[in-house]
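Fold sample X.
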Amino acid sequence: MKKAAIYARVSTGKQAAGELSLPDQKRQCQNFAETKGYEIAAEFVDAGVSARTDKRPEFQRMINLACAAHRTFDAILVHSQSRFARNTKDLLIYKEKLEANGVQILSITQDLGEGETADVLRTMVGALDEYQSKETAKHVARSMIENARQGYWNGAQAPFGYRTYAAETRGARIKKKIEIEPQEAETVRLIFRLYVFGDGGSGPLGVKQIATKLNARGLRVRSGRPFRVQFVDTVLRNTAYIGEHYFNRNDSRRGKQRPREEWIRFPMPRIVEDSLFYTAQEKLDRQHPLKTPPRIVRSDVLLTAVAKCGECGAPMRKLSGKSGTYHYYRCSKKYECGKAACTGVSVPMAELDEIVVGALEDTILKPNRLRKMTEALVSRASERNEAFAARRSLLDGERRQARRQVSELYRLVGTGEMSMDATLSAHVKGLQDKVETLNRQIAHLDRERSLPVESIGAEVVEGFGRAVSAALRHPDNRAFARAYVQALISDVTVSDSEVRISGPKAALLHQTAMFAAKGELVPSFAREWRTRRDSNPWPLPSEGNALSS
């Protein structure tokens, strides 16, 4: 007796409940098998999967078994050819592959016979199925886009921090809207705070450290699983948390992002303030592996990415000697290319670290020096605020203009007055990148303006100096010390005769104001306490010279 396998498939829940339901397909195939004298040897079912692609688990398992050396069936029964494939290319490829292995595809509702005429008809039916599928997809996409434009949430699961609710019913359809899920939203805020500020006992945390901390607290993602690095990274990059979600952004079939002009902006309830979000984006950009090597991002070496060779300007790299007993900073160019490339010095790591920490303590963090510097900066606070306000007004005007230009270009494309060619697409992307840059600059200004500069008194200044000194000297928290060194210092240039330290003045005021606002140390980045020309030279201990200026 001949043996056959049944393949059944539906692509949506609506189909599963209708005449193309999986049980109905299987029942009709079983009846056909009895009539034609086939014994059912296997059943393969793909539920909720489109036939426009061959990426279907049960479909591939069936093909593999059909082409195996010891196959268990001679034919594959389907309700209609469209259940097997809605892509003409896939239909022809798999039909040829199966027939080469002695396996037929039999459509129980489309008996086209055998021979060349049947092959032509089968190809025509496949092409019509593909066309119908594409037209249906277009109709569904148009409906979903209009649904999003009206402020209704399309079927996908809401991002972490949000939930859907039934807003109204239209016939058999439930229209959903989005709202904040309080507990998840608080976790989202915590992720951003830990990434930008830390937990008070450390510097800003990395993505992996945040996942570890959340899991240690017993927090879980919506599925009940532990937090993972990729999940935390996705949260930090998601613009939905500042009220900007986009529908129709990705083409799931091609695995690519659609052109920006096809995105539909969907307003979301805000969970995170712009200033916090864009500060996180700046840090993500700085720590991107294509911009900053992971060894620098994760390093607890105090002067990583700060110390530079005075001869060639290359970064100083940590090197170890005598099986890790001794550690040095050495010019990376000299290390990689030899003495012919650079004659820069090697400095014991502990020695250079002590010079830099000592310079901060003696020149900046002593109460009387720190008071004088911050008083001078605070005295110009009103001037500073006026400059910030003027700068923000200018940036805001530029942003409005760029947004209007983008909207107008989209309108012209939509009405057919312009076509979206490569040149126009590049121009639109440039405008969108400009808007993103302006968003960050405005958020940075707002953050600076909100800091309580006027409340920085003698008590705050002295407390800040003591706290930073303690952090820099703490033997068990090098990451926190490194965060503060990088927040206060822009360059440590090392040569044979001196160590030149420079940093931006604004950074000092920023860090002190952060301390005043939070009541604890929160290293964050705002450059400029001392210009490079105004920096003090610090002789190496081996030179035996006193501090000079």
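Fold sample Y, listed below.
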Amino acid sequence: MQLRPTLTLASTLPLGLVLSTSLHAADVVLEPQIVTGQMISGAERHPGTVDRVTAEDIARSGAASVQEVLQNLPGVYLQKAGNVSQDAPSIRGFSAEQTLVLIDGKRVPNTDRNLSFQPAYRYNWVPVSQIERVEVIRGPAASLYGADAMAGVINIVTQKAGKEWVTSVNGSLGLRDGDHQNDSASASIGGPLGSRGDFNLAVSERNADPIFADDGTTRTSELESRTLQTGVGVALSDTDRVEVDLLLGRDEASETGPAHGAGLRTTELEQDRRLLSTSYLTWLGDFDLQLSATQGRTDLLEGRSDWEVDEDDYEMSLEGRVGERHWLSAGVLHRRESVARNDKDFDDAVDATTLTFQDRISLTPNQALTLGVAYDSHSRYDDEVSPSIYWNWGGMTGLGFKAGYGESYMAPGLTKATSDYLIPAGPTRRYEGNDDLAPETNATFELGASYSQPRWDTSITLFHNRIDDLIAINEFQDGPVTVAQYQNVNEAVTQGVEAEFDLRTGEHSRLRFNYTWLDSENRSGSDRGNALADTPEHLFKVVAEHTLPDFGSTFYGAWRYTGSQYADLANSDKIDAWHVVDLGISQPVGEYANLRLGLNNVFDEVVESGGEFLEPGRELSLRVSADF
């Protein structure tokens, strides 16, 4: 592809795991960029708080899932969610369903929002061995993505074919208490097709055995997950490219818990996933233009509940320089969502159109003002306008400041938003939707400072979220039946501080730590004044790495402290604080292979809440990878 000069905005040196708060984002430089499927990267354009985790970081940490990839980031806490319990990343005290999840910039069908019990089914789509990087925006990003980006955005960028053919194989084995607990295997191949094309193919399988309690119930779920990912790209000319990507997956899981009466009940999960996207990339004058069509579908059998969740997206994104001081990003997205529950004869669909616009203005050589707005038109709700404004300043001394305000919103899931959804739960209980629900909205203030030197970086960010019209279940009596109905009953505030420090003590050593203080408050209903559930007040995370250059060995250590929290809105069930230590060593073997041995949860810290393991105990892991 032809190189083209592109305006970029310099940011601070990496913080958090790899990249964090863009406080020096005012410096304007010209750099060449190759037009590819990743040419328009929202995280690069966001003036707020951004983290990036690379494939190298993932390999050193030994992470076995996307959730584990995120667990050492500031402001991120892994909750348990759903009937078949899964880890769900919560950002800054928001629920996991209030985060937008993307794969290569394409939206994943939001099963978490549309299904009961807020499951976490959006994170098994891509195995960690196929991840090039994960970009995480903490805070609203409506001016880039529109609806659903309330808490933030998680964009999983997958490995793509390069200029040479490469074959990769990966395998891992995890043991806990001498028993086989989990394993994974994957293989991929990718490379050029002639002078203008490229192709990639990857397959993977991951298995996790359940952990049982003495009473026969499971504390962690059994899981089998398989994926197939393939893509073809063709350069039609030096400025035009077409890409077609397909991602298929199947998950099978089960969990055993107490039945409503006596005995035990096992919930089975079967989930089939498909994400098909076609993109066309070109130039329009001085702008990069991307047109894409994406079809996402999830067929899910959860116990006796038979679901179909579909999302079809049609998007146009435009990005480029206007004059010497303006960098414009604009887009239009039309989305159609449908949910069907076949065992209850329920079927509903909505359409939504989003217009996004952002102008990053270089006020001076080291000062930028970013103005953005999103306009959302929904077939069921009133139109929403979500503005944002950010100011960034960065000096030559390494000192930087930022201040910003942004709004965002999320429409209710289809099962919550209609009285046609009536689900009996025994003779005396019923769940039902509500025609009068309003979308949830959020307003966020951010204030931050950073300081960068050749061997170390540090930053501090203060944030305040005001969340209105939160959706929760409200119970009332209808004769002998207790009705659990979705209603806008909650208002809440989450606020806190994120502090980060990154020390590079030498060419081969690095020490990073971050601390998050989170204050949450329910401001409505009978639980007014209480803390929100599953929002630990303190999170402290340390990651240390050291490489022996003569041997190529890399030592890895991580310590995570999770402060006390409440498991319910009534604040009657408190979970005490705990800490976990992970250790690992990676060693190259020959020219192509790498071996990693890890010991996770070294001190065998076991934390249980609500019949689930928040921390399941010590695990020994072995991972082997090779690239040819």
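Sample Y note: The radius of gyration is 24 Å.
Also: The chain has five helices and 39 strands.
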